[in-house]
Amino acid sequence: MSRTRQGYPPEFRRQMVDLVHAGRSPAELAREFEPTAQSIRNWLAQSERNAGRGDGGVTTAEREELNRLRRENRQLRLEREILSKAAAWFARETNAIPSQGSGS
Questions:
Q1: For residue 33, how many other CB atoms are within 10 A of its CB?
Q2: Separation between Cα atoms, residue 16 and residue 47, nearest integer Å
Q3: Is 88 a domain residue?
Q4: Pairwise CA distance, residues 94 & 103, whole Å
Q5: What is the largest CA-CA distance in the chain?
Q6: Residue 67 lies inside a defined structural domain of this protein
Q7: What digits encode the pLDDT tens for the residues 78-104?
Q8: For residue 45, what are the domain limits?
Q9: Which residue spans within the chain are E strands per DSSP?
Q10: Is 16 inside a domain boundary?
Q11: What is the CB neighbour count within 10 angstroms for residue 54?
Q12: Which of the pair, 16 or 2, is modelled with greater confidence?
């Protein structure tokens, strides 16, 4: 079974981005610290997006809002499904509609 590593803390990511801005290369930082050069480049690109200078990708705030809205949407779908089943059950109990059984 594969082990996954915990994500790097935001402060560590900010420090890596600051070091790149100070003139160090992602490859150099990757040799000195644990993350890969690609991870550091990804953090740099995300930092640029968050500052409004990026490539037009989704900012961290937009990603958090999107995740929140997806969770809310899942919850609303579940609640709607439960209410639909409850309404059908109550309708059958009050004999408003015939049951879907075989009748025997």
A1: 14
A2: 11
A3: no
A4: 17
A5: 81
A6: no
A7: 999 999 999 999 988 887 665 566 555
A8: 10-57
A9: none
A10: yes
A11: 15
A12: 16
pLDDT one-digit tens code per residue, 25-42 = 999 999 999 899 999 999
CA 32, 38, 41, 47 dihedral sign is negative
Report how far residue 77's alpha carbon sits from residue 66's, in angstroms, rounded to the nearest whole number. Answer: 16
Residue-by-residue DSSP string for 36-63:
-HHHHHHHHHHHHHHTT-SSS---HHHH
- Which residue shows structure tokens 């809310």? 72
- Cα–Cα distance for residue pair 67/84, rounded to 1 Å: 26
Q: Is residue 22 part of a domain?
A: yes
Domain total in the chain: 1
- What pLDDT, on a 0 to 100 scale, did the predictor assign at position 3? 66
List, for residues 52-70, the tens digit of each pLDDT value. 887 778 899 999 999 999 9
